[in-house]
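Entry type: protein chain
Record version: 2
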Amino acid sequence: MGRPVFLKRLGAPGAEAFAVLFALESFARAILATVIPLEALRFLGDAGGVSAAFFSSSLCALAASLGIPWLVRKTARRWVYSLGFLGLAAAPALFVLPGFEPFMAGMVVRAIGTVAVTVCLSLYILDFIAKKDLSRSEPMRLFYSAAAWMTGPFLGVWLSVNFGRELPFLVSAGVSLAALGYFWFLRITENPAVVQKAVPVPTPLAYVRRYFAQPRLRLAWVMTTGRNVWWVVFFIYVPVYAVKTGLGPEVGGAVVSVGTGFLFLTPLSGRLVRSQGIRRVFVLGFLLAAVSTILVAVTISEPWLGISLIVCAALGMSAIDAGGNMLFLFAVRRHERAEMTTVYSTYRDVADIVPPGVFSILLRVFELPAVFVVGGAVTLALALLARRIHPRLGRERPPAVRSDPQPLGEPAQ
C-alpha cells in the first residue's frame, strides 16, 4: 500500500508542507515570546527599559531587512531562507551568554532571521499556491501554528522557572534547526517563470516608493502593521502586566498562550472570511479588541478582570489573523513579488519598533495602563480603516458583478 495522501503532501511543496514549516518556525519563536520580555525586565528593571531594548533591536532589523531582495538576487532564495533559520538558531546561543550586550545581540539576530524566513516563505507560497486557494491555505497555515503559539509562551516561562533559564533557548535553537532540515528535505526551488520575468529594482528606496504608490498594497501594509502593533503590545506588556500586578511570570506566560491558542479557531475564521468577506471580519474583530484593550486600563486595580479582557481582545485579533495576509497576496503583481514582499514584510519590523519606541517615552510620564489605552485607540482606528476594504474581497462565491463594478481593494463609497 502506498503512503496516505496527507503524508505525500507533507513530502512535497504545497499548502500542507508550508503550514508545517510555518508551525516549526512559530514554535521556535513562541517558546521565547514571553521569556525575552521577562529577561529584559530582569536586566533593566522597568517597562520603559524593556521598551527601549525592543525598539533598538527592531530598528537594526528593519535596516537589515531591506537588503533581503539583493541577497535573493545575488544568491538564491533557498540560501536566504536557510540563513534565516540559522539566525533563529544562533540567537538563543547569544541569549544564554552572560551580560546584557550578548542579550541585545541575540534580539537583533533573532529579528533579522525572522524577517528573512517570513519574506522567503511568502514568496514560496505565491509560487506554489494559486490565488483562488489562498482563502483556504492561509487559515490552514495559521491553524498548524496554533499548537506552537498556545503551548510555547507558557512552556518557555515554565521551563525557565523550573529547569533553568537556558533550557527554552536550547529548545528554540533545536526546533529552528529541525525546520531547516525539513526545508531541505522538501527540495523547494524557485519558480523559473517568476525568476526569469523578475525585473531588478536598482535601490531599496525605489521599490519602497513603488510599493506605496499602489493603493491596494498600501492598505494591506497599514492594516497588517496595525494588527501586529496590537500583538507586540500583547507579547511584551502582558507578561510585564502580570508581574507588576502581582500575578507572577507564569500567569503572564499562560495568558499569552491562551490568547494565541485562539489560532485553533482559524478554520472557523476562514469560513467567515469566505462567506462574509474580509471587511466584515476585520471591522468586528478590531472593534472587539479595541474596546477590551481600553477597558484593561480602566480595571488595572482588578488584575484578574484585566486578564479576562486581554483574552477577549486576543479572540478578536485572532479572527483577523485568518485573513491578515490575504490583502497583500491578492494585490501583489507576479513580476514584483520579491521586492514587494520585502517591503510588505517590514510591517513586522515597524510594528516591533513603533510601540516600544513610543512607550519608552510615554512610560516616563504615565504608568503601565497608558500602554493599553494607546493600544486600544490604535485598534479602534484600524476598525474604521477596515471599512475601506472592498466588501467582496476574500469571498469564495462573490455576488453577480454590477454594471459599474468597483475595483477590488478600493474603498467603498
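Comment: The domain at 5-388 is CATH 1.20.1250.20 (Growth Hormone; Chain: A;).
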